[in-house]
Amino acid sequence: MRTLCSSTLIGEFFVIGFAGLVAMKDPSLAVATVWWVCGVAMVLSVLLCGMVTRPGGVVLGWALQLALIASGFFVPMMYFMGAVFAALWWASVHYGRKVDEAKARFAAAAEAGSSPTADAA
Fold first, then answer.
1. How far apart are CA 76 and CA 59, in angstroms?
2. 14-48: burial string, b at 16+ Cβ within 10 Å, e else
3. CA angle 110, 111, 116 (to 5 degrees)
């Protein structure tokens, strides 16, 4: 799960940075505020890469997804990008857990000395 979720979060790091570039062109937004908010979100996305497998890591990831969607109020394209990354986050968590379960099953079968595919049949 860690690899899939971390890949999604690093992608978000770049998207947040590019959204900051777009948002700073809006004359109603202070450039310092834009970069403060984007900077915090970018740092959070990198820190979450190491926290994904810890308690609350996935929940914080969902909070970041909601914040990314909500950023569409300032950069309308972020509604779409936020939804795409929320879907990627769901897939990363869902399929990452399945991969982790399969790895555990194969490791247990290898420890027992049997074939993991024979147990599945």
1. 25
2. ebbeebbeebbeeeeeeeeebbebbeebbebbeeb
3. 30
Nearest Cα to Cα of residue 49 among 79, 77, 11, 91: 11
Structure tokens at 106: 């194969």
Establish how many alpha carbons lie within 13 A of residue 38's alpha carbon, considering only the half-sphere containing its beta carbon: 23
Please check the confidence at residue 15 and state whether its pLDDT lies above 60: yes
Instruction: Give tens-digit pLDDT for 87-113.
Output: 999 999 999 899 889 988 998 888 887
Whether the predicted pLDDT of 118 surpasses 70? no
- Token pair for residue 8? 């999604």
Inter-residue contact 97 to 105 (CB < 8 Å): no
Distances (CA, A) of 85 to 11, 42, 64, 68, 94: 9, 14, 10, 8, 14
The Cα 119–Cα 121 span in angstroms is 6
Backbone angles phi, psi at 118, to 5 degrees: -70, -35
